Amino acid sequence: MTVSPPAPTLVGHDRLQDDPLVGAGGVHTVIIGLDASPLRIGYAVMILQTGELLTSGTMHVANTGDDLRNRQAGWRHIMAEVNRVTDSSLVVCVGLEEAYVRFKRQAILGALTIGNLEAFALRSYPWILVHRLQPTEWRRLIGIKQGGKEAPMEYARTILPDLDDQDEADAICIARALCLVVDSGA
């Protein structure tokens, strides 16, 4: 069972510090970056204040049976990873790459997957902010100027040198961009 974030605490001259996104009372908070597709979910869990990567990976989603239940199983795996590395009550934000929807089956399934993950996140952590980022937005925020897969992989390898999975690399980049968005208050 997931509990809510810590209550606001008094800081200084009886002023109430109630901004959990910036770590009320000096507590580090956690964000989750997700790069989702119908069959794979890349995830990265980072400390918001420092950008330290706590865990990352790619969850392969079964492509047989009930799609919603398969995505729920993927989300449960990600939640288990969060609980393994930190207190889940410290999660304050989940960032997802926004789907580019065209009238093609795979693109529509991708949009459904993102919507499902957003719903799972809000059900699991009802106090969080969910933020969707366009691929061009998260790339710009972390200083990637070109398109393609090489630049995000190169950026993510500065954080995790032995990385070889593109979805995980994108999730790391999304998480890092999300740290910048939340930190700046944008």
What is the compact description of this entry?
The chain has a single domain, classed as Ribonuclease H-like superfamily/Ribonuclease H (Nucleotidyltransferase, domain 5, 2-Layer Sandwich).
Could you please describe the fold and organization of this structure?
- The chain has 186 residues and is an alpha/beta fold.
- It has one domain (17-184): 2-Layer Sandwich (Nucleotidyltransferase, domain 5).
- 39% of the residues lie in helices and 22% in strands.
- It is built from five helices and seven strands; from the N terminus they run E-E-E-E-E-H-E-H-E-H-H-H.
- It has helices spanning 67-85, 105-124, 135-141, 150-157, 166-184, and strands at residues 9-11, 15-17, 30-36, 40-47, 53-60, 91-97, 129-133.
- A five-stranded mixed beta sheet has the order 5-4-3-6-7. Strands 1-2 form a two-stranded antiparallel sheet.
- A hairpin with a 3-residue loop joins strand 1 and strand 2.
- Helix 1 packs across helix 2, helix 3 crosses helix 5 (166-184) and helix 4 packs across helix 5 (166-184).
- The protein starts with 8 loop residues before the first strand and ends with a helix.
